Amino acid sequence: MIQKIAFIGAGSMAEAIIEGMVNKKVVKSEYIYVANKENEARLEELKAKYNIVGNTNKEEVIQDSDVVIFATKPYDMENAILDTREFIQPHHLVISVVAGISTDFITDRLGKEVAVIRSMPNTSAAVGYSATAITKGKYATDAHLLIAERLFKAIGTVSVVDEDKMHIVTGISGSGPAYVYYLVEAMEKAAHEEGLDENTTKQLITQTIIGAGEMLKQAKDPVNVLRENVTSPNGTTAAGIQTLSEYQFQEAVVNCVKNATKRSVELGED
Prior knowledge:
Elements: E1 5-8, H1 12-24, E2 32-35, H2 40-50, E3 53-54, H3 58-62, E4 67-70, H4 77-84, E5 93-96, H5 103-110, E6 115-120, E7 130-136, H6 142-153, E8 156-160, H7 166-174, H8 176-193, H9 198-218, H10 223-230, H11 236-246, H12 249-269
Parallel strand pairs: 1-2, 1-4, 2-3, 4-5, 5-6, 7-8
Antiparallel strand pairs: 6-7
Helix pairs in contact: 7-12, 8-9
C-alpha cells in the first residue's frame, strides 16, 4: 500500500499525474509531496490547486516516502539524481517519467541497489486517460512492476514493454497528444475560415476525436477498414483524404514519430 509519494520536478507532466492521482484518490493529496530546484511560486501554485505539500527541501520531501517519482526535464535529470541520492534508500521504489533516460543511467547515478521503473505516460493523465508504458530496471522485481502498474492504471491504461522499446513509445504515445492537438488546431482554423462559430467548432471536433477513439477501442475491424467505411467513392471524405495524400500526410506522420523517437535516443545519449 502506497502511503506517500514524492515528486522530484514540478512541471507539466508532474502536474498531470498529480491531478489524475488526486481526482482518482490514488493517494491522499496531503501525502503527495513535490520538490523542484528553487521555484517556490510554482510549488505554491500546485499546493493551492491540489492541496499537496510543496517543498524545495528534497530530504523532507523524500523522507518516509514509499515511491519517488522523477519528473524533471531530461537535461536536469542527472543533477536531480545527484542532489537526492543520499536520501534515497534501498526500500524506495524509484519511478522515472523522464524521456530518454535509461534505468541503468538512474541506477548508476544513485550508486546503490534501488528498484527503478522507467515509465512514459502522457499529459492525458490529468483527466485519467494517459497511455502509459512501463519497464523495469535490473533491481526491480515483478512486485515493483505491479505497484507501478497499479499506480498508472489509476490515470489511464498501462502497457509493459521491454526497455529498448521505450524510445518508440515516447515517439508515439508520449508525444502523441500534441500531434492530435496540432491536427485539431488545423481543423479549427478551417472551420473558422468557413464561418463556423467557436463553440460549435469545439463541440463538433472534440466529439469527433472522442468518437473515433472509441471506434478504435471497440471495433474489431483494422483501422484502414474503419477509414474506408467512412470514405464513400467520390464523396466529401474522399476529397479530403485525397488532399491529405497529395500533401503526403501519412509520410509526414511517420517521419514525425521517427524524429520524436530519434530525439528520445539523443536525450538519453546526451
